[in-house]
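During the no-cost extension, the postdoctoral fellow (Dr. R.K.) reprocessed legacy sequence entries with the updated structure-token encoder. One reprocessed record is reproduced below for audit purposes.
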Amino acid sequence: MEQINGFGTPIDKNLMEILYTTEWTSSDKGIKDKVPENSKFLIGIYYYKAEKENPGFLSQFYH
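Re-encoded structure tokens follow.
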């Protein structure tokens, strides 16, 4: 796994769009929209490097 530190401008804009438009849901002991104390939010976003004539892009992990 390679750590990414910064992206080109189009990738930055795409990442910000993903973060702003993500819909959050939660459940604690069957209670919808309740977040347990000391919770952490994980966001699965994959970065694909540019290859040949194909540009790099971001993709979300949907569960």
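The first strand starts at residue 27 and ends at 28. The two ends are 21 Å apart (CA to CA). The remaining legacy entries will be reprocessed before the final report is submitted.
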